Amino acid sequence: MSDYTPKPEHKFTFGLWTVGNVGRDPFGEAVRHRMSPVEIVHMLAEVGAWGVNLHDNDLVPIDATPAERDQIVREFKQALADTGIVVPMATTNLFYDPIFKDGAFTSNDPRVRAYALQKTMRAIDLGVELGAKVYVFWGGREGTETDASKSALESGKRFREALNFLCAYVKDNGYDLKFAIEPKPNEPRSDIYLPTVGSALGFIATLDHPEMVGLNPEVAHEHMAGLNFLHAIAQAWDAGKLFHIDLNDQLFGRYDQDFRFGSVMLKQAFFLVKFLEDMGYEGSRHFDAHAYRTEDYEGVKAFARGCMRTYLILKEKAARWNADPEIQALVQQINADDGTYSYLSGGYSKDKAERLKAESFDVPALGKRGLPYEQLDQLTVELLLGVR
Prior knowledge:
This protein has 15 helices and ten strands. By secondary structure, the chain is of the alpha/beta class. The protein has two domains: 8-316, Alpha-Beta Barrel (TIM Barrel), CATH 3.20.20; 325-384. The strands form two sheets. Strands 8-6-4-3-2-1-10-9 form an eight-stranded parallel β-sheet. The protein has a two-stranded antiparallel ribbon with strand order 5-7. Helix 10 links the parallel strand 9 and strand 10 (285-287). Helix 5 (110-130) runs parallel beside helix 6 (152-172), helix 10 crosses helix 11 (297-323) and helix 12 (325-334) runs antiparallel to helix 15. The radius of gyration is 23 Å and the shape is globular.
């Protein structure tokens, strides 16, 4: 059997808010005691993770004094040093406190928008102090329940102004930091702005410094909208904007379930892992998932180990898929190319257009050509089921 032990080179990370989740939900109180950030760091080291990510208030309470803040950060940094755990990504909590009930950067209240910028600048300072290289923006409250409440056009402008301001802040301070927008279609708002990878890519192109801003797509968020996450990742990769990724699992059309990676939609998880590994993705593999509410902290450890183990198993399966002679023969058959139309590569020219217009095609024959996708998919399923 292969070794599925996580190693630093795998860059597996969890958030303080994930393994530290106490199991509270809209219909029930907490089922686990709250662990301190220092305890969480030591637990992640125990299960073999490489890094820990955080919102500002996961570490420092929103009402902490400067002295309390410094002590908390000092103790946290000591835990990082003691365990070797790193902080590759940070973000700001702009959704929990009542002040953000109508959004942060898109709030109708200019005082709230100003506070959101102040809070984010301070959180960016904290993230950089801890070593973060990626800073994520999830607009959890940036949306509406009724379009009577705010202008979607004006809200987009406010969001743009905020990110332009913060990009300039990062540049002015000489921080080595990139931003990543995390799309989500709904929950907790009825409709959240920038709901999908595609909409976020379009928005990024309008910013003053689009080179600084990319994406942090999440499996569950695209699945909530019934979309194909692999296709979204491919689009982000092709645009050079896959700065970070949130791995979990999610049934289509449900609330944000944040299940253990690969636990419900295994084939989708397989092709995602295959894509990341085939493309040579070098960023963190961040598990933004939560253990079942039924679990104690031993169960949380099993959950965390399961996320990493499943990824490594699927990574091995992807290598087998790439090396399987029967599978690869089908892939070659499907993509057969005798070079007849290679002259079309490299873009348009008048000569190419005239030559193509003069070509003749046997349309009925092309329409009758069988494509062995059923066979290829069955072999993939058999590989995942362990019979190949």
